[in-house]
Design brief:
Layout lengths: L6 E2 L7 E8 L9 H8 L4 H10 L2 E11 L2 E11 L4 E4 L28 E3 L8 H15 L4 E4 L7 H6 L3 E4 L2 E5 H7 L8
Parallel strand pairs: 5-7
Antiparallel strand pairs: 1-2, 2-3, 3-4, 4-5, 4-6, 7-9, 8-9
């Protein structure tokens, strides 16, 4: 599924899900030195080293949740160049992409949100975030990824990551063992 087009996943509980896998453009760097310097001013020194060492994406994975042709949620992740690690952080590549034909994003307005996962307040507590995370776990497993790191966790997303099995390193960073998450399956993940 590396054709840079949105593909429809299974529908669940009246919501449709779409996925897009996009390779990093070979002729354009994703992270520039100036953006690293800007980001580095806002984070602790030990995290600065991690940015320089590992946060270089090779592929982006975006998942959308749609109800009645209206965008109600999104998730963004990237597989890093090592091929074994994936990352979710406030990168917002989705805002720069075209959505599937006929999908209206005016209510959600993805350009205003800078998290790695977001569900419209009206549609929360319907399992949307859980479903998007489970689709991500399956896709990462297909690519041979064994670890998902989540960075810059927003306060309102902490419960999501806890209930979907993340192990917290501190209040802003968590990791998932992808093999364990895929074995649990969606039926064993709490409703969110």
């Amino acid at each position: 599924m590396e054709n840079n087009e949105w593909n429809k996943l299974n529908s669940k509980d009246g919501y449709e899900y779409y996925i897009l896998e996009k390779d990093k453009p070979k002729d354009k760097p994703i992270i520039s030195l100036s953006s690293i310097r800007t980001e580095a001013r806002n984070i602790n020194p030990s995290r600065q080293i991690k940015i320089l060492q590992i946060d270089v994406p090779a592929k982006f994975i975006d998942i959308l949740a749609v109800k009645n042709r209206e965008l109600v949620g999104f998730l963004e992740a990237s597989i890093l160049e090592d091929g074994k690690t994936a990352s979710m952080s406030m990168q917002t590549q989705l805002a720069k992409m075209n959505l599937p034909e006929g999908i209206d994003d005016t209510k959600l307005n993805i350009h205003r949100h800078n998290g790695a996962i977001f569900v419209d307040e009206e549609h929360r507590r319907h399992g949307i975030a859980k479903n998007m995370m489970n689709e991500l776990f399956k896709k990462l497993k297909e690519h041979g990824v064994n670890k998902l790191s989540v960075h810059d966790i927003k306060e309102d997303a902490i419960e999501l990551y806890k209930t979907t099995g993340a192990e917290f390193e501190n209040e802003k960073e968590a990791t998932y063992n992808i093999e364990e998450m895929v074995l649990k399956g969606p039926e064993n993940t709490p409703e969110i």
